[in-house]
Amino acid sequence: MSHEDPTPRPDKRTLRRDILTARNELTAADVREAAEALAARALAMPEVARAHAVAAYVSVGAEPGTLALLDALRARGVRVLLPALLPDNDLDWGEYAGESSLTRVRHGGRMELCEPTGERLGPDAVTEADVVLLPGVAVDGRGTRLGRGGGSYDRVLARLERAGARPALLVLLYDAEVVERVPGEPHDLPVDAVVTPSGVRRFR
């Protein structure tokens, strides 16, 4: 007699594929409307409102939009750090100085990323951030995040931990991307909160 779960949960690859497929069906208007709502929700969070430095990223394609949030933070005088992908998949950082300070970079056969054009501040610059926005594909009720799959942000989280840095860890997602369960590893560090167009959910 088998005691296996008759409805096995999807593995990371399947979950990521399904969610990215759903994202690709969104219209430009859907993405723009969600981005404005995400910015408003995030800016109202106390940890974002009092932040002096925020490490973020530039959304690409149908990802939950970040540019409206980046511009609003910069208008408030917040220092916004953006990543630049290194050959070993680690991240360097540069300062956001408006949309004109970004350049599109294609790394190998991957999608194009928007990266800062200015001075490189080194991989440890992220440890100075009060808030870190992590790109994600899904998050579950424990705060376990499913990332893009490159491992770059696992390195960022490990670097923060080694430095004893405790920024607020936030992930921006569409409402349907808060799921029942993300397959996790023992070393996964949960995020503090997920921001979706309809609200904020905190985990710790």
Automatic annotation (TrEMBL):
<dbReference type="InterPro" id="IPR002698">
    <property type="entry name" value="FTHF_cligase"/>
</dbReference>
<dbReference type="InterPro" id="IPR037171">
    <property type="entry name" value="NagB/RpiA_transferase-like"/>
</dbReference>
<keyword id="KW-0436">Ligase</keyword>
<dbReference type="GO" id="GO:0030272">
    <property type="term" value="F:5-formyltetrahydrofolate cyclo-ligase activity"/>
</dbReference>
<dbReference type="InterPro" id="IPR024185">
    <property type="entry name" value="FTHF_cligase-like_sf"/>
</dbReference>
<keyword id="KW-0460">Magnesium</keyword>
<dbReference type="Pfam" id="PF01812">
    <property type="entry name" value="5-FTHF_cyc-lig"/>
</dbReference>
<comment type="similarity">
    <text>Belongs to the 5-formyltetrahydrofolate cyclo-ligase family.</text>
</comment>
<keyword id="KW-0547">Nucleotide-binding</keyword>
<keyword id="KW-0067">ATP-binding</keyword>
<protein>
    <recommendedName>
        <fullName>5-formyltetrahydrofolate cyclo-ligase</fullName>
        <ecNumber>6.3.3.2</ecNumber>
    </recommendedName>
</protein>
<keyword id="KW-0479">Metal-binding</keyword>
